[in-house]
Specification:
It is built from 3 helices and 8 strands. It is an alpha+beta fold. The strands form 2 sheets. A 6-stranded mixed sheet has the order 7-1-4-5-6-8. A two-stranded antiparallel sheet has the order 2-3.
């Protein structure tokens, strides 16, 4: 039996479709070599964070420059001067007549100047915790470093737009909305540079009793 060229092409096409369909289903099955859910990104796809569980690197660069000046000037003065000109009781006058005089003044002036500068920079990899309906992503990250009994912890959270992420999957902290940066330390170095224990409470009490 001879097979025509048209029939042969139809058979080849059908076999190819069956082969690729079986490959796709095998890739989607658990236990196969390629897991589409685990990888999800091809070698030519965009590798920036887009889904819950994806990672993104946050470049923390925060600077604070505060300068505040206040001044007040208050002045108040009062004067009181009363004198009786005549008192007649039962036809008898009183002499000398009583008089009353008083004066007071109150002056207050004050000024205050507050200046503070600070900067903080760090690099932290955060995880996408949630994706909002409008596409914005909620990220959370934590990094802890322990050296010789000293522990330093950096925590970062906020909301970002996917379009602000660079091609290297990084984003500047100034582009993150509702950003919260926390830097804390525990250990001998932290204790040496901060008041602790009874000394801290005593200094706080003195500052409250005599704030000048």
């Amino acid at each position: 039996m001879r097979i025509s060229s048209t029939t042969f092409r139809v058979l080849i096409t059908g076999c190819a479709l069956i082969f690729f369909a079986d490959s796709s289903s095998a890739q989607a099955r658990n236990g196969s070599i390629f897991n589409a859910r685990a990888a999800g990104v091809s070698s030519i796809a965009d590798k920036v964070a887009a889904r819950p569980g994806d990672l993104i690197t946050v470049l923390i660069r925060e600077e604070a420059n505060v300068n505040s000046t206040e001044a007040s000037d208050y002045s108040k003065s009062t004067a009181l001067d009363y004198e009786m000109s005549k008192i007649n009781i039962f036809g008898k006058s009183i002499d000398p007549l009583p008089s009353l005089g008083a004066a007071s003044s109150d002056d207050f002036s004050g000024s205050a100047t507050y200046t503070k500068k600070g900067s903080f920079s760090a690099r932290l990899t955060a995880i996408v915790a949630d994706v909002l309906p409008n596409g914005n992503m909620v990220i959370e990250g934590r990094r802890e470093v322990r050296i010789d009994g000293e522990s330093k912890v950096i925590e970062f959270s906020g909301i970002l737009r996917r379009w602000d992420i660079s091609s290297t999957n990084t984003i500047d902290s100034e582009l993150v909305a509702e950003a919260k940066v926390t830097y804390s330390g525990v250990g001998p170095m932290t204790n040496a540079t901060n008041r602790t224990g009874v000394g801290a409470k005593f200094h706080a009490a003195i500052s409250w009793l005599w704030p000048f």
